[in-house]
User: What shape does this take?
Amino acid sequence: MNKLLTVSPSPHVKGDESIRKIMYGVVLAMLPAFAMSAMFFGWNSVKVTLIAVAASVFFEYVIQKYIMKVKPTVDDGSAIVTGILLAFNVPVGLPVWLIILGALVAIGVGKMSFGGLGQNPFNPALVGRVFLLISFPVQMTTWAPNKLAADGFSGATPLGLLKEGLKSGKTISEITSQLPSHFDLFWGNMSGSLGEISAVALLLGGLYMLWKKIITWHTPIAVLGTVFIFEGILWLANPERFMDPMFHLFTGGVMLGAIFMATDMVSSPMTHVGQLIFGIGIGIITVLIRNFGAYPEGISFAILIMNAFTPLINAYVKPARFGRIA
Amino acid sequence: MLKTFKMGGVHPAENKLSAGKAIEKLPLPKTVSIPVAQHIGAPATVVVKRGDEVKVGTVIAQSSGFVSTNIHSSVSGKVAKIDDVMDASGYKKKAVVISVEGDEWEQGIDTSDTLIKETHLDAKEINAKILAAGIVGLGGATFPTHVKLSPPPGMTAEVLLINGVECEPYLTSDHRLMLEKTAEIIVGTKLLMKSLGVNKAVIGIENNKPDAITRMKDFTANEPEITVQPLKVKYPQGGEKQLIKAVTGKEVPSGALPIAVGAVVNNVGTAFAVYEAVMKNKPLIERVVTVTGKSVKEPSNLMVRVGTPVTELVEAAGGMPEDTGKVISGGPMMGRALTTLEVPVTKGTSGILLIRNEESKRSEMEPCIRCGKCVNVCPMGLEPFLLMTMSEKKLWERSEDRHVMDCIECGSCSFTCPSNRPLLDYIRLGKGTVGKLIRARKSQN
Assistant: This one.
């Protein structure tokens, strides 16, 4: 016998899961929302997305090769996902230099400073986005007109209009006429950041990811369910002070956050029960910030706060063991 | 809704290439090397010496304790030497090497095909015959069967489960046995039931063997005490804890044996061997081995004498394909990669699998992306990613706390991981180290 045989421990077969498949699956899931944003905002939305992706990939490559001195892994698709998600979280009119700065913070601070893929405690795209929001509030809240919106809503997002209206003492009934209808919100006829406006496109992407087993239902349903229930309770208590729960579901990036941002595997809990707790926490904090805080929308902050709780959730929420002695 | 175990599980490609091939007797080799340690427990003590003449069924090594069993010659001829011989584990083990002359069997062994259904033997006598015949679990674990049939004091068996699941991809020896030796398996089942003192048996078969399910159901139509339970195709349904859970709904407690929930599990091959031992006085000297692989010319199910070199089996299946990268003894999920084909078939060899070059190499490991898939697929409810990290950082006490010893080494975690992390390798390291610590602690007390 002169043939050399490979000898390694079992198992000797491998399933077809891979990081690449997961990441590119997420990219595919984001295509409907990307297509809608191009329809509503035109060529600029494509430009913003491409710049965000290119910058994210570039920074990851450079940091890995020259600073961390490891083999660059940009082909695994995770930087592309971060780039697209960052683009989805900013207004279409954001200056190019701010997109690039956001990518640098998202990848450099949000991901690479912790050691790269798998090590980041926070969602990198949200780190970039919140950095931009807090440091450059004006540019981050200047909304371009939605080309296809019936009355060309411009200047403010529905949540922004709501917050302003409530602050100036108006009641819900008075503000509602200024706001897009539920149908408009579901479809995307409103102002907002690139990816957050079209609930239907986001839901399609979510269903695709569920089908391909990239995500499970636990985190998104926990977030959306909690927001719906608590906003519902507030609305029932005082319908003149609080908008109805469907409005809240379709605005302020709750769909985008629940389906694409909270489900980031690295920064969310490992067990299904843990994910439910995680999602409920995000929902509660979002409702609190939206209705009682200074910012019109709160899901970005809510997700980052719950990301910080993930290690604790993982430590205490363990899977049910086979044959555990009760 | 087919019954199944709830927690975890994966779906590797089935590749049951040899399912339609009837069992063929492999011609006798020129030499056999019969290891004395083919079972869990103490190796048997050699009772022959160089030059001795042996027949098929001659005892060549005797049981050396309670958890041990007898080894018989599988051929007739002369003992050439007693030597350390390479076996499937990759290490050299003591074996009796016999040069084959003719095919003479010991007196008293019934080599005919006549079905014998009835016996006057009682439970104790049946158990004694099982020990005498050197019967071990033929599912692969090779646990001495007579020990399994003797529950510890205070524990009683309520149900016998016959494992016809064969959840490993590629393997079909149990499938063919169920199709071709159906009546014998049923008699063997009843013998096991009598030995255990139970009046209930369930034969579990995965749903990818509909012909076996139908045939077994037909043959048990007049046996009210024996039911055939089809099961959902999901790996590792054949693991005894998972089988017990699917059939009875009970979970064997962590650290306990199946008898703790009143169940005893035996492989269909074992039931067949028990029939031959009790009814035909035939000791365990041969078994069905599946020889298979995507490039193999003739994927086959061969009846092979214990001690036959694996080279003979591969030749019979059309020779080793050019593109072979790995040869596995057993199935692809839990089998052992061989360093050479010059190793003997033992009581526990269920299959020889030849894997192509391109499927033999592992991909490079990537960082853990905390996707949680390993947790979702673990049938024991463990956290493989965490157990791997603990082994890496040598945190053995914490590894024991996180129940590393519950791992059944099924491989579902490594199979699934998108980052190609060698989870099971590190978990095995943890089990080995923690096992040593536990034994040291016990011996100190």
About this structure: Chain B touches chain A through 71 residues (CB under 8 Å). The domain at 286-358 of chain B is CATH 3.10.20.600 (Ubiquitin-like (UB roll)).
